[in-house]
Amino acid sequence: MPYRPGSRLPGERAGKLNHLDVLHSPLVNALVRQFETPNSEQEGTGDGDDELEPKWTPFPEGGEPLRLVFAVDGSLQVVGSEGFPTRELAFVKTALLRVDAVAVERLDPFAPHPMRLKDILSEAALYHATAFPLRNLSLPGESNYNAIRKIIFESIKDESLHGEPMSTLKWLAYEKWSSRRPLSPGFQCPICEEEIEGLPYDAEEGECPHCASHVYLSDMLGFHLEMGEDSAPQSVASSYMLIHETLLLFTGIKHYWESNPRLLNRCLFVKDGPLTLRSQYSKLVIPIRRLFQDALARGITIHMFGQEKSGAFVEHLASIQRFAPSGPIVFAPSEKYIRTNVQSAPLRKEPYGLRTNYGSKLFVKLDDYHHLVLSTPIGEYDANPTLQQYIGITNILATLPQLVSHRHECALVPIVLANGVASLSTYPSAQILRLFAGL
Ligand SMILES: [Zn+2]
Q1: How far apart are CA 123 and CA 121, in angstroms?
Q2: What is residue 297's predicted lDDT score, i.e. its pLDDT?
Q3: Residues around the ion ligand 1 (C-beta < 5 A)
Q4: How far is ligand 1, taken at its centre, from the CA of residue 214, in Å?
Q5: Ligand 1 centre and the CA of 191: distance in Å?
Q6: pLDDT digit string (tens) for 88-121?
Q7: Which distant-in-sequence residues (6+ apart) come within 8 Å of 349 by Cβ?
């Protein structure tokens, strides 16, 4: 960007000569040639390394479209007071929707009637909302740090959802679908910072064995590692939102598991965003992978995917899909493909997503207008899964064409609906939230 004009000297002019200099620079030329290398490989004229070529295959045959689709999404709004010191709080909203795929297919894909949409949504959504004090706000008699820990615990127990997300957290943390009776995953005490081995089976609350402080099962997730003593960053609220979305989705699975597990074979669970739990929140990844595997061993297929709408994978798919055959086709990228072509990074010691992902990446091209980056569980971790390892993939792929939205590019109706239900636009305005919160 050129310099702005000062008081005495005119601003720098980005003259033509400057551009020419740039274009004639040997360094720039060498760099630009390198920048272009990955693309030429994607077009199939690369260095001949077979593993770096996208291996598209047609959708497998014999899939049954899944009729009951569940979708989850969340949103977050931060409001602050004017004046000093600034007080700040965050509102978080999450929703789980149940969508009948047949009803979605009957909608006019270009201009769905709002009343028909309302019919589809009625009696089909679970909502949750909560608020966090981020700066210069607290609960009476509590530090901000302890206030947020308590709010997180009580929010997960939200009575308006009959405490379901908490019982789902216990279901996952203690692997309650199995006959194992493990301690909860271990965690660092939020008060004395010593390592706690885990809470006893089925406990929601407990005591630190080192400092006797009261601890919550929700502390196991490690929200306190993001917080300061007096204030919490906005990322605590967004982490809470992501965890709560995940718990809502698994609340749907747990519901069928406990009432009629066979019905899971006909359900599809959809999340906006990848099936990933980053850093300290990844403790739930191992139990979640085990759930998918244990279900398979019992003849139950849990169909789930997350759709990524931005980021390196989405950009990469946009660049390669033009050179791919016509859809519907699918491609499961290898570890080497991801590191080299998507992340442009060398292979690392730790395989991609080993700790954080409970779904493996999948590129899907439905037709010339719709291509999707999905992640789908494969059970136990494998850096290089084959398409057959993606759990329930034949049925999932058979369902996708019914779910495509023609109002947005590369969009799926259940995710669009969940965005709408959980979105900020269904909140009161920031001004009303501010008044409501007394800021
Ligand atoms: Zn302690």
Answers
A1: 6
A2: 95
A3: 189, 191-192, 208, 210-211, 213
A4: 8
A5: 5
A6: 888 898 989 888 777 777 776 666 666 666 666 6
A7: none
Those residues whose C-beta lies under 8 Å from the C-beta of residue 202, and which sit 6 or more positions away, are 170, 174, 176
Res. 315 pLDDT band, cuts 50 70 90: very high
Position 432 scores a pLDDT of 62
Distance of alpha carbon 274 from alpha carbon 357, whole angstroms: 8
Q: Strands 360-365 and 371-376: what pairing?
A: antiparallel
- pTM, two decimal places: 0.85
In this prediction, residue 33 carries a pLDDT of 64
Q: CA-to-CA distance for 416 and 158, rounded, in angstroms?
A: 25
The residues near 242 (Cβ < 8 Å, ≥ 6 apart) are 74, 273, 277, 281
> 411 with 405: CB under 8 angstroms?
yes
Query: In this structure, what token pair is assigned to residue 116?
Result: 């028909």
- As a whole number, the mean pLDDT across the chain is 85
The pair of structure tokens assigned to 33 is: 């040639």
Question: What is the Cα–Cα distance from 411 to 406, expressed in whole angstroms?
Answer: 8
Residue 183 alpha carbon to ligand 1 centre in Å = 17
At 122-153, the pLDDT tens digits run 556 788 888 888 888 777 888 888 988 999 99
**Strand-pair category, 371-376 with 214-216:** unpaired
Nearest to 207 by CA among 224, 194, 226, 225: 194
Residues written for the chain: 439
Q: Distance, CA 130 to ligand 1 centroid (Å)?
A: 27
Q: How far apart are CA 396 and CA 278, in angstroms?
A: 25
Tell me: pLDDT of 3 over 80: no
Task: Compute CA 156 distance to the chain's CA centroid, rounded to the nearest angstrom.
Answer: 18
The bridge status of strand 214-216 relative to strand 205-207 is antiparallel
Q: Give the residue carrying structure tokens 């005119």.
A: 10
Q: How many A from CA of 87 to the centre of ligand 1?
A: 30
pLDDT at 416 over 50: yes
Give the C-alpha separation, 427 to 366, whole Å.
34
Distance 207 CA to ligand 1 centre (A): 8
DSSP assignments along 82-142, one per residue: SSSSPPEEEEEEEEEEEEEHHHHHHS-SSS--HHHHHHHHTT-EEEEEEEEEEES---TTS
Residues ≥6 apart with Cβ < 8 Å to 62: 394
Confidence at residue 110, expressed as pLDDT on a 0 to 100 scale: 65
